[in-house]
Design goal:
By secondary structure, the protein is α/β, with parallel strands linked by helices. The chain has 14 helices and nine strands. The protein folds into three domains: 198 residues, P-loop containing nucleotide triphosphate hydrolases (Rossmann fold, 3-Layer(aba) Sandwich); 52 residues, Orthogonal Bundle (Histone, subunit A); 75 residues, Orthogonal Bundle (Helix Hairpins), CATH 1.10.287. The strands form two sheets. It has a six-stranded parallel sheet with strand order 6-5-7-4-8-9, sandwiched between helices. It has a three-stranded antiparallel sheet with strand order 1-2-3, with helices on one face. Helix 5 crosses helix 6 and helix 5 packs across helix 8.
Length: 358
């Protein structure tokens, strides 16, 4: 397990940084220290980023790595921030959350809005807390938009939310569907329309909201200050991954996805709310209302999952910081090697101050 010592200040103490590699009994322990009176306090912890498409095994590997390195997990998933939505989002189980501390889960109710800006703000606060405790952070997830916002700075226009515009767009969504809204975005802001999938309801509504507020296309956002991190990606042969994803869909229905969706409806949440409009819950709703049979709902959910996997890999392939690992029995060992090297290097360097946003 790797720990920063002393943990009494965020990340690195001014004047002395130490990382100790604690190995199993009988093996040598590597201790790397740096003493420099001019070193500034770092606001970020040693950070490992683990990305990849859905169903590839990110959560399992992140859990194994967190236990190996004494790390905390910050989950970067745009749907796992919602309470009561566990099965359809493949959220870490209670047992897994008890074994390793997880952050950014169950933050809001399904009828509350949540944005990439808020994820960045709250996620940076979590990273600072982890730094104060002298621990390693593992940022794991498949929502590229949230990952970019957290690690690289604001990714959307800094325009205040307009409840009136959002309510009207939500009503139009309910009446005409997401493709009608996306076609409007194509006419108003082709560049944003190219980036936003029609079924990514929160981003679609946000883009139209900003376009209406600004009177033109979403303005470009200057790059923020990146969080120093080791970027790892987990991947699998496409057809093998599709088979794994297909089996997971079946397992989720067997585990009670339809019942979980019915419970959300019983609590007063509606099909028009963005969290329930995404895949998994959309197909479960269609099954509950009789529009789809059980077999059809599973097939449509599997198709939507494969489409999402394609979009995720298109996004992640654009990031040349990622070192890719094959999702097999050797992934854990290879990841441990890369992380050990990274942490040792981080301990020998004086990190720059990374304040982020307050």
């Amino acid at each position: 397990m790797y720990v920063f010592d002393p943990p009494s200040v965020p990340g690195w103490a001014a004047g002395r940084g130490m990382l100790q590699a604690r190995t199993s009994p009988g093996k040598e322990s590597a201790v790397v220290t740096r003493t420099d009176a001019t070193v500034k306090v770092a606001r970020m912890p040693a950070t490992i980023v683990l990305v990849g498409p859905t169903a590839v095994g990110k959560s399992r590997l992140a859990l194994q790595l967190a236990q190996e390195f004494g790390a905390d997990i910050l989950t970067a998933d745009s749907r796992q921030v919602y309470r009561y939505m566990d099965i359809g989002t493949a959220k870490a189980s209670r047992e897994e959350q008890a074994a390793v501390r997880h952050y950014m889960l169950d933050l809001v109710a399904p009828d509350e809005g949540y944005s990439a800006e808020r994820f960045r703000r709250e996620g940076l606060g979590v990273l600072r807390r982890i730094a104060v405790e002298g621990r390693v952070a593992i940022v794991a997830g498949g929502t590229g938009f949230y990952l970019r916002a957290l690690l690289d700075g604001p990714a959307v226009a800094n325009a205040p939310p307009d409840p009136g515009i959002r309510a009207r767009l939500q009503a139009e969504l309910a009446d005409h569907g997401p493709h009608a809204l996306h076609e409007r975005l194509v006419g108003l802001d082709p560049a944003s329309a190219h980036r936003v999938h029609p079924h990514n309801i929160p981003r679609l509504i946000r883009a139209l909201e900003v376009v209406e507020q600004s009177g033109g296309p979403v303005p470009p956002i200057p790059a923020g200050t990146s969080v120093p991190a080791l970027h790892l990606g987990l991947r699998m042969d496409r057809h093998m991954l599709w088979e794994v994803a297909n089996r997971r869909v079946v397992a989720q229905f067997e585990a009670g996805l339809a019942e979980e969706t019915g419970a959300l409806l019983a609590m007063g949440y509606t099909a028009e709310m963005p969290p329930l409009a995404g895949f998994a819950y959309r197909q479960a709703l269609d099954y509950l209302t009789g529009r789809l049979s059980h077999t059809q709902a599973i097939a449509e959910y599997q198709l939507a999952t494969r489409q999402y996997i394609r979009r995720q890999m298109t996004w992640f392939r654009q990031d040349d910081r990622i070192t890719w690992l094959e999702s097999d029995s050797g992934a854990f060992s290879r990841a441990c090697q890369l992380i050990s090297t990274y942490l040792t290097t981080a301990a020998s360097d004086a990190p720059a101050s990374m304040t982020g946003e307050e």
